[in-house]
Amino acid sequence: MRAHHRIALATVTAAALTGGLLSLTAAPATAADSTTVAKADFNGDGIGDLATSASASYVNGRKGAGQVVVLYGTRTGVSGAKRTTLSQDTPGVPGGAEVGDAFGGALAYGDFNGDGYDDLAVGVPHEKLGSDTNAGAVALLWGSANGLTGKSAELLDPAQSSHDYWGHLLAAGDYDGDGRTDLVVSASTSTLYLYKGGFSSTGTATSRTTLNPPIQSGDDTYPFGPLNLTAGDVNGDGRTDLVVDGYETKTRYGWNTNYWLPGTANGLSTAAAKKLKSGIITGIGDINGDGYGDIVSGAMWDAGKLEDGTAVPDASTGGRVNITYGSVSGPDRTAAINQNTGNVPGGSEKGDGFGGELDLGDINGDGYQDLVISSVFEDLGKVSEAGMVTVLYGSASGVNTTTRAQAFAQNSAGVPGGDENGDHFGSDVKLDDVTGDGRADLLVGSDEDGGDGALTYLPSDGTKITTTGARLIGVKNVGVSATGTPWFGSIIAN
């Protein structure tokens, strides 16, 4: 689930709050895992695959039409050697590549049709339909023994005249616990659309309902709908819950408010929603191994004040991460970390953007979900906004900020490439088992080469993330044009 230019838009807000301390970057990315090692398996070989996009890429000369790239997992990880690159000009994919469509502006995976292969939901938030310039669209790409081939269906907008940017965000999960994968779709308003799993080959769902997460009196929503949607089981009842990262207005500018919506036998419940700590990007995973998913939200903005003098809540210099531990009743105790916490690598500095992206997965197979956090605007030496990612390990007491922490940048020994201005290493991050060994490996997106984009693969050696076997996957490796700024790797499916 991902919104096109989500980080850029969120950063505009953060900069307004802090007097412009954060710089602007293009293209976004999302995080969402359950309480187990997450993996997409589009070809059914038992090894995790990775879906990402270059949503601003040229396709047959059409600027910003967008492409989706699937990297298939192997015993040696992912590379450009075993992959599929798709666009709306691929036979079978709905629509056609047009200027500015942003195919791949949002991604979510799950077995939507129940055939044993994971499928990929693709948002096309700027699709033009008739005279509606930003109507949006959603395509369902079906998995098979050959992976994603272009065979697909279209999920039509049921209320095109009432909003724009259909497919702005996507979130897949089993929200009613019936064993079938459901899909939540957002547009430019606070209303969410929940499709019950068991999709037909033409994209017809078993049922469709609408959800309206709580908006308090005087509040408003982010101008393009919610900031982010994250699926995971927080209360351990076997049903997927949903965290909605929203937007709350106070005076001219504001900060976002997040809500937890529990899954029930009838789907997601807005009546039982609970307000959470704020943050623009969220991940869910069982950090302390108690069987309940923990909610981790990144609040990347710097401490500051609104125009009326009100302090920005949940903010600290350089950004912070808010952790809300799960329980049988849902969200429970909270904690917060930043780069000044314990032995977390680095130090909190204005504009670092710590918490700009994050994800969870079990790197060492100990049953505790581990956490990767990006400092997407981190300056390293004289290199401006090079970016850095931090790995913190789970334990019975929660996130371990005392020992075992790791940090990686492109100047780290063994990491391919080198630090460059504006690389934004960590523009998206993903922990996923792409080797089939039951351990989560690390994938890091960056704005390599002025916005061409790239993915860095850092495998797990069974106990930790290592640079042995690391590789850089760029546009030339995956069949994406380097014309313009394609932003390959800035959106990774969850």
Automatic annotation (TrEMBL):
UniProt cross-references to InterPro entries, sorted A to Z: FG-GAP, Int_alpha_beta-p, Integrin_alpha, Integrin_alpha_N
Keyword Endoplasmic reticulum: no
Gene Ontology terms describing biological process: cell adhesion
Keywords from the named record: Glycoprotein, Hydrolase, Repeat, Signal
Annotated Gene3D superfamilies: Integrin alpha, N-terminal (2.130.10.130)
GO CC entries: integrin complex
Name of the featured protein: VCBS repeat-containing protein
Pfam families documented for this protein: FG-GAP (PF01839), FG-GAP_3 (PF13517)
SUPFAM superfamilies found in the cross-reference section: Integrin alpha N-terminal domain (SSF69318)
Signal peptide: 1-31
Keyword Protein transport carried by entry: no
Molecular-function annotations in GO: hydrolase activity
PANTHER family, sorted: GLYCOSYLPHOSPHATIDYLINOSITOL PHOSPHOLIPASE D, PHOSPHATIDYLINOSITOL-GLYCAN-SPECIFIC PHOSPHOLIPASE D
Species this chain originates from: Streptomyces griseoluteus
